[in-house]
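pls design
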């Protein structure tokens, strides 16, 4: 295993995490728009018009629902709308809150959440609608619920964030693994093949001749005689011995 095997595995793992997060997010959004979104679960009322809907206790979404003949490039304009809701006898009226949502388009069918109803108690409610809907095809208000798995979106978002962090860490690891430590310089030894200039001539050691050796011995004897260490007779005897040595 080389020094870069680990970073490569980390990069692949980070990319796979990112792919899983993005793919999961796309699939969840598609399923939310087509399968999980029960935008008309409790019925629809034409605009303008009136009717009755069975509403459960809790939160109910109110969506503007219409048909189009072409695309909706540049956004979908929601016309001015009015709604009135009468609760059954003895029940409080629902609380209506503006809650503009994103536009969902499937084939030629378009819907936009515009209100949220807080219903205190389930029952059959009378609904009246009105609005400037000239030019819209079969406009109506749909009463339903948001059944999209919101926790899946959070999981997918977490996977994407985790993948980005893993990818950043893997790239940093990869960059650091490519830096090799510099070797510690050692002493430089140059032989004849590495010497950049001309090779100097060899230095020979000095070997004294026999004549020089005898001369040095005579000088030593003279110094001993002058110092009184040798007598004249001893000096002459040693001198003859040195001179007679060939």
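designed seq:
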């Amino acid at each position: 295993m080389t020094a870069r095997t680990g970073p490569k595995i980390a990069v692949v793992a980070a990319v796979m995490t990112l792919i899983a997060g993005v793919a999961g997010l796309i699939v969840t959004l598609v399923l939310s728009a087509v399968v999980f979104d029960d935008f008309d679960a409790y019925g629809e009322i034409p605009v303008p018009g009136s009717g009755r809907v069975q509403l459960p206790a809790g939160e109910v979404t109110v969506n503007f629902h219409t048909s189009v003949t072409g695309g909706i490039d540049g956004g979908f304009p929601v016309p001015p709308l009015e709604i009135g809701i009468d609760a059954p006898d003895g029940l409080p009226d629902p609380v209506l809150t503006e809650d503009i949502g994103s536009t969902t388009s499937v084939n030629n069918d378009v819907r936009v959440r515009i209100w949220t109803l807080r219903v205190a108690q389930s029952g059959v409610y009378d609904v009246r609608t009105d609005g400037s809907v000239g030019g819209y095809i079969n406009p109506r208000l749909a009463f339903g619920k948001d059944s999209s798995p919101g926790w899946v979106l959070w999981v997918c978002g977490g996977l994407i964030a985790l993948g980005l962090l893993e990818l950043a860490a893997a790239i940093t690891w990869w960059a650091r693994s490519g830096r090799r430590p510099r070797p510690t310089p050692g002493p430089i030894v140059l032989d004849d093949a590495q010497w950049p200039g001309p090779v100097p001539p060899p230095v020979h050691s000095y070997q004294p001749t026999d004549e020089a050796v005898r001369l040095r011995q005579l000088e030593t004897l003279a110094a001993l005689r002058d110092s009184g260490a040798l007598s004249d007779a001893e000096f002459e005897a040693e001198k003859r011995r040195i001179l007679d040595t060939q």
